[in-house]
Design brief:
- This protein has 336 residues and is an alpha/beta fold.
- It has 2 domains: 137 residues, 3-Layer(aba) Sandwich (Rossmann fold), CATH 3.40.50; 185 residues, Dihydrodipicolinate Reductase, domain 2.
- The protein is built from 8 helices and 14 strands.
- Helix 3 packs across helix 5 and helix 3 crosses helix 8.
- The chain starts with a strand and ends with a helix.
Length: 336
């Protein structure tokens, strides 16, 4: 490949697609040409990049001729249909969907955690579930301080995880509720404004929803710990952007000291320590929104278990949980 690249975005009109455009400009990603792909209904519309309007083309077979790097963020079914064509055209593919994440031969990379899982033979790379990415980025520095045996995680997930449509739904419901107007129609089976509910994915036979299963399986793969005990409860909360998680880490011996954990986190890439007990200042989704780093704090020992450590994290779901991680993977692969 050349020092500049022909880049395509599949799902360019979505919430993550917009973040790709902003990140390419912010990080000076070396683009020679940019192709914006979306569904047929968006064809003819334009999006701006570096002051120029770029027409949206249809995401379809044959659209990847001459493309060096293709970023996918249009859902698993679209990825399954079009990723093989992009690979056949010679593109490196970074896929934000769940389509290929758990395939053994597809790296699931969080660059701060497991960059060594990349090899030059790989051309397809999956970006993990946003909640798993944030979790692994936050706890990875602590893994050097003891042998982890079990994770217990509760998530407080924002509307951005459901895409631009869910963000608009939350805004519309909130406005209607405050004005005393009828709520807008929704595909959710719950009222979103001023409410929280179990994550809106299907419940499996064991009683866990799809999101919870993704986080458990992908966390094991990202950390390279296939036998790690993980239990996750995923909840939607009425926040526009940035997920929050509370985490209990159980070790095979006494939990590491609070001082050593704070020191490890303060030096870790992709992490910002926010842990001021005196001022009661800890990670929040508002503070995390728009930030590249995952905020980590509320660090304390579990009073019910001397081998356990508790913490809280917040991270921007559209950035580190999606677009930023994808761009970082591409930079790693291309040697940028």
């Amino acid at each position: 490949m050349s020092e500049t690249y022909s880049v395509a975005i599949v799902g360019a009109t979505g919430a993550v697609g917009g973040e790709f455009l902003r990140l390419f400009e912010q990080r000076n990603f070396p683009i020679s040409s940019l192709k914006l792909l979306a569904s047929e209904r968006s064809v003819g519309k334009t999006l701006s990049y570096k002051g120029k309007d770029i027409a949206i083309e249809e995401a379809k077979v044959g659209a990847f001729e001459g493309v060096d790097v293709a970023f996918f963020s249009a859902g698993a079914s679209r990825s399954k249909a079009l990723v093989p064509d992009a690979l056949a055209a010679g593109a490196v593919v970074v896929d934000n969907s769940s389509a290929f994440r758990m395939q053994p031969d597809v790296p699931l990379i969080v660059p701060e955690v497991n960059p060594n899982t990349y090899t030059s033979e790989n051309k397809l790379f999956s970006v993990g579930n946003c909640t798993a990415i944030l979790l692994c980025t936050a706890i990875n520095p602590i893994l050097k301080l003891g042998k982890l045996e079990r994770l217990i995680v509760s998530t407080y997930q924002s509307a951005s995880g459901g895409g631009a449509g869910m963000m608009r739904q939350l805004e519309g419901e909130t406005k209607a509720t405050l004005l005393g107007e009828p709520l807008p129609e929704t595909s959710l089976n719950q009222t979103y404004a001023f409410n929280l509910f179990s994550h809106n994915t299907a419940i499996g036979a064991e009683g866990y929803n799809e999101e919870e299963m993704k986080v458990m399986e992908e966390t094991r793969k990202i950390l390279g710990m296939p036998d790690l005990k993980v239990n996750v409860t995923c909840v939607r909360v009425p926040i526009l952007r940035a997920h929050t998680e509370t985490v209990t880490m159980e070790f095979d011996g006494p939990a590491p000291s609070i001082e050593s954990v704070r020191e490890a986190l303060s030096k870790a890439p992709g992490v910002k320590l926010v842990d001021d007990r005196e001022a009661n200042q800890f990670p929040t989704p508002l503070a995390a929104s728009g930030q590249d780093d995952v905020l980590v704090g509320r660090i304390r020992h579990d009073l019910s278990n001397p081998n356990a450590l508790c913490l809280m994290l917040s991270g921007d779901q559209l950035l580190k949980g999606a677009a930023l991680n994808a761009v970082q993977v591409a930079e790693l692969v291309l040697g940028i």
